[in-house]
Amino acid sequence: MQILDSGERAFAVSISGLIYCNPFLAERIEWERAALGDAYLTADEPWNVHPDRAQANLPALMERSETLLAAVATRLDAGDRLAARDRDLYEDVALFVLYHRFLPRFRDVLQRAEPAPSAGRRRVPFFREFVSEAKRLFSSRGLEHRSREDLAHLFACFFQIRRAFDQIFGCIIGVSEPAIRLRAHVWQSIFTHDMRRYRRLLYDRMNDVTTLVTGPSGTGKELVARAIGLSRYVPFDPKGESFTNDYLGAFYPVNLSALSPTLIESELFGHRKGAFTGATADHAGWLEECPAAGTVFLDEIGDLDPAIQLKCLRVLQDRTFQRVGDTTPMIFEGKIIAATNRELAEPMRTGRFREDLYYRLCSDTVTTPSLHERVASDPGELRHLVAHAARQLVGDEGATLAGEVEKWIDRHLGRDYPWPGNVRELEQCIRNVLVRGEYHPPRTGPGASSDRREALANDVRDGRLSAGELLRDYCALVHAQTGSYLEAARRLGLDRRTVKNRVEEHRREHGSAAV
To answer: How far apart are CA 354 and CA 373, in angstroms?
Structure first.
C-alpha cells in the first residue's frame, strides 16, 4: 500500500537528498528549496561560511519532517505497511530529525572536550536517550530492528559529521568561491562523494586512502590536513558509553624539511636502543604511536630522502614498518596525509622522487588556492581574513586593528597587491601594523633574484660579511633558486637541517618574503 501521498513523498525525497549531499556545495540549497517551496527563506549571510549561521530554514524543515513522521506513525499503528522505497525515505527523514534533535548535545560534548589521552574515554551520558529515541522512530514502527551496536555506529557517524563541520570551518576561513570550494573538497576527503556508501562500508577503511595536499607556501596545507585528520571516524563503545579513542589528540605532524634523515627515521619509525649514536633507549615513532583513528601528516614530502621514500612506500603498500635497528615488523593502522608546495613532476623525472610513491600518495588530492586567487574571486575575502586574524590577535579590539590594516593596504599596497607570501604574509602584515603601524614587503619580481645575487657579491667583495652571515645569505639564495631544502643542501654539500636553519635565520633578518 502507498502510505505516502505524492506531496509527502516529494518532501521526503528532498530531505533524503539534503542529508546525503555535500553541505558546502550549492546542491544543499537546491534541496532545501525543493523541500520548502514558497516557504523557503533566503539567508542574509552566505549559506556555507559558518556552521551555525544561515540556518533560517531549519525550523521549517524540522516541523515538516516531524509532521510527516507523526502522520506515518499513525498510519502504521492503524495497520498500514510501508512499501520498500517509502520505508527508505521514512528512515532518511527520521535520520534528519534524530541528528538535529541531538545536535546541541554533540556541540556540548565538543565544547567540553580536552585534547588529552583520557578525553576520548569520557562517558557520553545522553547515548541512552539517543538509543531510546532512535528505537522509537525505527524499531517500534515495525521497521528493521536496530541493535544497540547499530545505533552506536549511527551515533559515531553523527558525532563525526558535527566534528567535521567544526574542523572544516575552524581551519578554512574565507567567503570567496575558492575558499568555499576548498571546504567542499575537504568534506569529500573525509566522507567521499557518496555518504550512503561511507556509512555502510567506508567509515573504517579511509585509512587506506592517502591524501596529498598541494599548493603554494603559506596557503594553509597543514590546516587542511588537520581538518581531515581530526574529523576521522571514531567508534563508539555502547557498553562503556564512550568513544574508543581521543578524537582531538590523534594528529601527528612531521615537518620533513626541518629534520635530518636520521631524525626523520627515528620520528616516523622509532628506534631500538643502540641503533645509532645517541640512541640511549628504545623510542616509539609516530607510526607506532598513531591509533587506527589517527593521522600522521608528512609535511614537505617532496624533500624526503630517497632511502626513506622507499620505507614510506612499504608502509603505504603493506602497512608494515620496522624500528631503526630492529627486524620485528609492526603494523601501521592509521592514515597518512602528505603535503608539498612543489610540482613533483621534475623530481620524478630526475629520479629524486619515486614515481611509485607518488602514485601511492595521490589516491586523494586537495589543492589549496593562493591568496591572490581568493581575493581576485571575491574582494570581500581580504576584509574577512583581516578581520578574523585581527580578532585572533587582539580580541575585542579586532575591528579597530582590522580598520588600520585595511587602511594601510589601501594606501600603500593597493587592493591588487599579489600577496606572494599568501595568507602567511597577510598575517605578518597584520602583526607589522599592530607593532609598528606599517608594513613594507620586500621587493619581489623578475629582478629580485639577480638583485640579491649582486648584493651578496658586493658584500663578499667588500668584506662586509662574517663567515656565519655569508653562509646564511648564500643558503637563502640557493634555496630561493631551487625551491627545495633538499636540493639546496645537495648543491651546497650541507645537511638539509643546516640549510633550513640558515634560511629561517635569513628570513628573520630580512623578512618572510625576502627569499
So the answer is: 31
Provide mean pLDDT across the span 61-90: 89
In 3D, which of 222, 325, 333, 330 has the Cα closest to residue 266? 325
- Tell me the β-bridge partners of 339: 213
- Cell numbers at 116, concatenated: 588529552
Question: Residue 48: exposed, middle, or buried by beta-carbon count in 10 A (0-12, 13-18, 19+)?
Answer: buried
Residue 358 Cα distances to 185, 255, 258, 316, 351, angstroms: 20, 18, 21, 11, 12
Q: What tens digit of pLDDT does each residue of 441-482 get?
A: 875 544 455 566 777 887 888 788 888 889 999 998 888 877
* Amino acid type, 261: P
Residues 123-174: tens digit of each pLDDT: 898 999 999 999 888 866 666 667 889 999 999 999 999 999 999 998 999 9
Among 364, 27, 339, 25, smallest CA distance to 177 is for: 25
- Return the number of other C-beta atoms located less than 10 Å from residue 307's C-beta: 9
Quote the pLDDT of residue 179: 94
> Where are any strands of DSSP class E within 171-314?
211-214, 236-237, 242-243, 251-255, 295-299
427 three-state secondary structure:
helix
26's grid cell = 550549492
Q: Are strands 320-321 and 330-331 parallel, antiparallel or unpaired?
A: antiparallel
The predicted pLDDT at position 515 comes to: 30
Estimate to the nearest angstrom the gap between the alpha carbon of 170 and the chain centroid: 9
The three grid cell numbers given for residue 50, joined into one nine-digit string: 559558518
Helices (H), 216-289: 221-229, 261-269, 286-289
Query: Which amino acid would we find at residue 184?
Result: A
* Most confident residue range from 90-94, 246-250, 256-260, 445-449: 90-94
Cα separations in angstroms, 132 against 240, 244, 475: 17, 22, 65
SS3 of 235, please? coil
Integer Cα distance of 486 and 380 in angstroms: 38
Cβ proximity of 315 and 375 under 8 Å: no
Q: Which CATH architecture has domain 221-367?
A: 3-Layer(aba) Sandwich (3.40)
Instruction: Answer yes or no: are the C-beta atoms of 310 and 354 closer than 8 Å.
Output: yes
DSSP state of 463: T
Q: Which residues contact 134 (CB under 8 A, 6 or more apart)?
A: 98, 146, 151, 154
- Cβ–Cβ contacts within 10 Å for residue 281, how many? 8
Residue 7 pLDDT > 80: yes
| pLDDT on residue 259 | 84
Distance CA 100, CA 105 (A): 10
Distance of alpha carbon 478 from alpha carbon 500, whole angstroms? 11
> In the structure grid, which three cell numbers stand for residue 378, read together?
571575491
Taking only the tens place, the pLDDT of each residue in 381-423 is 999 999 999 999 999 999 999 999 999 999 988 888 889 899 9
Over 60: is that where the pLDDT of 430 sits?
Answer: yes
